[in-house]
Amino acid sequence: MIVRKEAWLILATSLLIPASLQANPAPETDALYQQHCASCHGTDRLGGMGPALLPDNLSRLKKPQAEDAIREGRPATQMPAFADILDSESITALAEYIYRPPANTPTWGKAEILDSHLLPHLQGSLPDEPVYEADMMNLFLVVEIGDHHVTLLDGDRMEPIHRFPSRYALHGGPKYSPDGRYVYFGSRDGWITKYDLYNLEVTAEVRAGINMRNIAVSADGKYVMAANYLPHTLVLFDADNLELMDIIPVENDAGDSSRVSAVYAAPPRDSFIAALKDIPEAWEITVEEGKPIVRRMQTDTWLDDFFFDPGYDHLIGAARDGKHGLVINLDTGKTVADLPLPGMPHLGSGITWEYQGKRVMATPHFRTGAVSIIDMDNWEVIKTLETEGPGFFMRSHENSRYAWVDVFFGPNKDKVHVIDKQTLEIVKTLQPAPGKVAAHVEFDRYGEKLLLSVWDNDGAVIVYDADTLEEEKRIQMNKPSGKYNVWNKINYEEGTSH
Ligand code: DHE
User: Fold this and answer.
1) Euclidean distance between CA atoms 457 and 74, whole angstroms
2) Boundaries of each Cytochrome c domain copy (predicted)?
């Protein structure tokens, strides 16, 4: 029997896509969407004042939660409750509708990016003095994902200075300008927001893509690079006003395109480094006379998550199979070591420190309760530390003898381990809010105090003394996720994320 390729495709597709998603949406559901949702989320679901409502963007929201959001609204956002307007069948139909792949693949190119550009304050038009008093190098930003806000904290007094709304679902670390005055936020649905910490004002915004991974700011502060999942692009902006400079299609020589796993600035190299999710390549991008120049490195596998040594000579990547890591020399592009890292290491949150006269790096794992500690001279795993469950984030500070790692997944998600960086042992396990995830630590600029999130709508950041490990105070917050200290970030402090 000869089966034509198209027939196989139809069969394969019908096996993969649930029946509810295969049929075209009923016209009445489309009408409901256009009547009640389109004004905020866009007629084509690409987002507007509200987030994009496409399957790729919603991968982290379960359908029952989407129904709840439609029924009850979302607190502290513009999303109203529809329980009194729509019956439960309509709510279910709408929730199904937003998880359907769109009829036409959405485009987000030059015209859309230029159209999205907002410039409330031209670079240089606001005063150069802060409108409040604080050590501007010891500020923290706390991203509160519960109601999409950001809190600015004074890191000396550990008191909030200001709280402002953010774009929907910020993700990844915000990136500061080299002088620490401006910060750039990236949202999952593609918005980049530039914020002036002196004047407490958004100065520029632009939407780089429909589903964005993260952003990076060049070491000289001149450029911002966005890495997208959808479309398959890297997008370069001028950092002053977020003007579009170039769109780099992410494809190989054969014309296959790829999502970008992430992009980071590599300060000593004066470049950006990106890894691709669907093509086994890592890219180094330099900007010459305003134009991005791409150098491609073939890798042995697809890299989902990666990290660098302090000199940015090597990229340490997690292989797609989640079973090992590899080390790539960034000058030669060659793989120089294979790391036995089972359990899907989360290298994006790796940290390094000095241990017995040499530099080691440590990473938690998404799938196993372990922290791997690796000698960065010979790339050997010197210790696998057992934890009470898989972890997400690790943090320390050069001046602290401890490293902190959370247990983000599983029954012990409310626990946080404190590791002695010289004995490589867990010396304390904290459980600050039983039943609530405790995760993500950031130190102040001196490494003397630190903040830990109680990751809950009725949550808090907890201030600890970094030496005695005693709690000092709790500041109430709405699902605080990451926290970012200006000094640590602009100095690429060894214990913090870059
Ligand atoms: Fe993240 C950083 C990827 C899920 C909160 N996350 C990052 C970075 C990457 C990444 C590549 C580094 C970018 C940067 O800082 O420039 N995250 C991924 C995933 O692939 C994953 C597993 C699946 C996904 O949904 O994309 C994922 N991340 C999450 C979450 O579910 C978290 C816990 C909640 C959320 O807000 O989405 C989450 N990720 C974070 C945070 C950072 C981050 C808070 C910044 C950490 C830092 O200290 O810099």
Assistant:
1) 12
2) 24-102
What is the C-alpha to C-alpha distance for residues 311 and 361, in angstroms, rounded to an integer? 13
367 C-alpha vs ligand 1 centroid, how far in Å?
15
For the chain, domains (ranges, CATH) are 18-98 (1.10.760.10), 107-298 (2.140.10.20), 345-498 (2.130.10.10)
| Ligand 1 proximity of 369 Cβ (cutoff 6 Å) | no
Angle at 144 between CA 96 and CA 118, to 5 degrees: 80
How close is the Cα of 117 to the center of ligand 1, in Å? 25
Q: Which atom of ligand 1 is nearest to the CA of 145?
A: 36
Ligand 1 pocket check for 482: Cβ under 6 Å: yes
Instruction: DSSP letter for 28, please.
Output: H
pLDDT at 322 over 50: yes
What b/e readout covers 340-370, taking b as 16+ CB neighbours within 10 angstroms? Answer: ebbbbbbbbbbbbbebeeebbbbbbbbebbb
ipTM, 2 dp: 0.98
* 216 Cα nearest atom in ligand 1: 16
Distance in angstroms (rounded) separating the CA atoms of residues 417 and 394: 10
Q: Which residue CA neighbors atom 8 of ligand 1 most closely?
A: 172
Neighbouring CB atoms inside 10 A of 304's CB total: 21
**Residues 205, 186: Cα–Cα separation, whole Å:** 10
Distance 408 CA to ligand 1 centre (A): 12
> What is the position in ligand 1's atom list of the atom closest to the CA of 186?
16
Is 307 near ligand 1, meaning CB less than 6 Å away?
Answer: no
SS3 363: strand
Partner residues linked to 405 by β-bridges: 394, 417
pLDDT score, position 352? 97
In a mutational test of the pocket of ligand 1, which residue from 143, 166, 167, 171 has the highest number of ligand atoms less than 8 Å from its CB? 171
- Does a cis peptide bond (omega within 30 degrees of 0) precede residue 267? no
Residue located nearest, by CA, to atom 25 of ligand 1: 60
Please, are residues 326 and 341 in contact by the beta-carbon 8 Å criterion?
Answer: no
Q: 359: which strand partners? A: 354
Backbone angles phi, psi at 182, to 5 degrees: -110, 155
**pLDDT band at 9; cut points 50, 70, 90:** very low
In angstroms, rounded to a whole number, what is the distance separating the alpha carbons of residues 36 and 163? Answer: 30
pLDDT digits (tens, 9 = 90+) for 411-442: 999 999 999 999 999 999 999 999 999 999 99
